[in-house]
Amino acid sequence: MDAPTTTSADNGTSGGSGEGGWFTPRRQPEPPVGGEQETTEGSRLAALRPVGRPARNGGEPAQKRISPVAEAGPAGADTSEARADTVNASPSDTSTPPQPDSQPRVPEQRSAPSRPASPDAVRVRRTMAEVAPMADKVTSYFYALLFVRHPDLRPLFPAAMDTQRDRLLKALLTAAEHIDNTEVLVAYLQNLGRGHRKYGTRPEHYPAVGECLIGSLSRYASAVWDEETEAAWVRTYTTISQIMIDAAAADELLAPAWWHAEVVSHDLRISDVAVITVRPDQPYPFLAGQYTSLETPWWPRIWRHYSFASAPRSDGLLSFHVKAVPAGWVSNALVHHARPGDIIRLGPPAGSMTVDHTTDSGLLCLGGGTGIAPIKALVEDVAEHGERRPVEVFYGARTDHDLYDIDTMLRLQQIHPWLAVRPIVDEQAHVQLPDAIREYGPWNEFDAYLSGPPGMIRSGVHTLRDIGIPLERIRHDSVEELVAAVD
Ligand SMILES: NC(=O)C1=CN([C@@H]2O[C@H](COP(=O)(O)OP(=O)(O)OC[C@H]3O[C@@H](n4cnc5c(N)ncnc54)[C@H](O)[C@@H]3O)[C@@H](O)[C@H]2O)C=CC1
């Protein structure tokens, strides 16, 4: 499954919780259908059958598709990458096949009230604890079951999925484990469901995945598996899949499953970083600070996440900053092979590291390496709104040479008196990016935006908390492990 998205340390997605149980399946698992074999598996299959119907309200406008967590790959199969340019992308979109995310994409249950876990959640977590030491085996068995029993699903996954095959499973298990954390989980699953449209996932695929999920869990958690546990998993999976299906159905009314986009310019700024501009084949609505998933023609069905490097433009063009990382299939193809005229595919926009235009707080922005891309988009966004809010950008790089976009940022500073850009070069400053902000401030009237390598985000959140910025005013993508680290 794909990447994350986070938002702010507080994901900003509350809402919708008052209706009494997002996670109470709106449709109870169906009893075994007459005529269907009365085997355990027949029952599972029937119980897991989701209902492919659009959400009651027809969905939200595309512009509102902001979720606190990133999307995961194909339902079932996500192969999508870790966010290539984002926090979860580990050191990159690296891997030999694209590296899977080592972290689940659901934020920690930081905001969950300290209510006792539901009986289903207790059973689900007991199963997870049981299978944890055999995660590899569970994963292999799950995909073996899926592809043997449902060979029609194989094409939804990339040809080479050795190292990332567990994305789907991971996302499902993570979601199941957080089944009580409704507000965060619903947003996560909705995003996941929408994101799965680009893989060709359909409602009828979900029961197959659920059946194989339960098949592999029951095998490897046999010591704790019983009828109640199975029923808990069926309810949990039914809830998960129904939210994903509903979100995908609602999104279908609003947006394509993917966009084709033609590369219109390719600017190799330094040996391993290119600024790539593309023209989507139809309007692509997004917000500054968000990111998208991207598939190249060279690595079909392998998706990577990249932040938009500009606010929405009147000519509809989109740009990305891509760093080629060792063994990064997609990033190397984009940096070293892509040329104008090439056609790529884009998934829907995601992410909520966006500017809150209802306040006039200042923006304290930390961009490390190619993490400067969405920061530039945020600056343009503030400029377009014509507001006079102070924006302070700290742009970190290892060396002077790595400040590949400093000219653009300094040009923006010249035009906008409310903008200050401060390059922080490790080898000169003898201090890494987050710590550099301690010498400036005060920052109590600022919202903070962090974009860059995971280590920078992690230490950035720590520093910002340390200087008194509350968690809910700190925004960045893919936060789950970071939230856990500071909470
Ligand atoms: N929305 C987002 O969060 C985005 C994230 N990214 C991510 O940013 C990264 C960029 O990679 P590179 O350009 O190679 O950056 P890099 O690894 O050269 O780091 C850039 C700067 O970040 C700071 N930094 C790095 N690691 C740190 C740590 N552990 N603690 C404190 N500060 C640290 C340092 O000031 C360093 O000079 C990639 O991992 C990419 O996935 C890229 C674009 C958007």
Automatic annotation (TrEMBL):
Pfam family name, one: FAD_binding_6
Keywords assigned: 2Fe-2S, Iron, Iron-sulfur, Metal-binding, NAD, NADP
Bias kind Polar residues: ranges: 1-11
Location of the FAD-binding FR-type domain: 256-356
Domain of life (superkingdom): Bacteria
Catalytic activity, EC: 1.14.12.17
Protein family membership: In the C-terminal section; belongs to the flavoprotein pyridine nucleotide cytochrome reductase family.
Identification of the protein by name: nitric oxide dioxygenase
Species of provenance: Streptomyces xiangluensis
